[in-house]
């Protein structure tokens, strides 16, 4: 039995830091494990310009512990009003690496998202021409649609449309949760990739309701059937360069999660690599984890691999049930369970 696994210093290509004191509480978790992270822009107000991203990046860097080799990568929030000039500024930037497409109303702080694909076609055309990456939250927002079908229907409709009309646009389908999304990425060209979260590799929708409603398993896109989890695990461990690590760690205060209308998002950055190691180990694929975590994402974004290496040891441990989150507390996805791998 393999008792250690060594990785190149990895990247997290989908992450939420929030802002202010709450952000300062969670940045060190990511900086300890990752060399870089693509930071999502769904703040209030959203990060819509390179200038706003520069200010946000500075605030993040002030929260990184001294002598920690971590660099935040920034994304801009795509809106109906995004200009082609802003796309050009992103193409010229050395720290903004993508636009994030939220269908309006799809998830946390997505009210300013895109209301109609037709409104962003001029922007997508320039993104395609300049090689700017489009990161996509892939769900339809029709309130009559079953929540468990929202991703599959987006793949069938909007995603197929974007791929058809912009055949060389670089796209990352974020936090995929279904076999349909995985199959779409596999069948697409080298310009299309996807991130996969630890929760979607480890849990299925039954986990949300085991022993009552488990709010800390609630995220969007929501956990799906076991058949989809198995498909994602097979995909993530396949060795395909189209799939790479993106935790979608999304911290919310405990009182926002454990509420009558609980917030969507799982906090995983406290033990991200350990969770992925558990998932890969469950199917005997630890040898595939280094490429998934440290190589494929960097190559897709045209970045060099990080310097340095990290080692995980097979060791049972139980993370705390709560962590500080600004002036409040946050409950991690791992609450009440032990992990089999620990970062040295």
How would you sum up this structure in a few lines?
The chain is globular, with a radius of gyration of 19 Å. With 344 residues, the protein is an alpha/beta fold. It contains 11 helices and 13 strands.
Major pleated sheet: 8 strands, parallel
Question: Looking at the structure, what is the overall shape?
Answer: globular
Beta-strand content estimate: 15-25%
**Distance from first to last alpha carbon:** 18 Å
Explain this structure:
The chain has 344 residues and is α/β, with parallel strands linked by helices. Helices cover 33% and strands 18% of the residues. It has helices at 20-33, 50-61, 84-92, 121-130, 150-165, 179-187, 198-202, 226-236, 254-257, 272-281, 289-300, and strands spanning 4-8, 11-15, 36-39, 71-77, 96-101, 133-136, 171-173, 192-196, 243-245, 309-317, 323-325, 328-330, 339-343. The protein has an eight-stranded parallel beta sheet with strand order 2-3-4-5-6-7-8-9. It has a three-stranded antiparallel beta sheet with strand order 1-10-13, covered by helices on one side. Helix 3 (84-92) runs parallel beside helix 4 (121-130) and helix 5 (150-165) runs parallel beside helix 6.
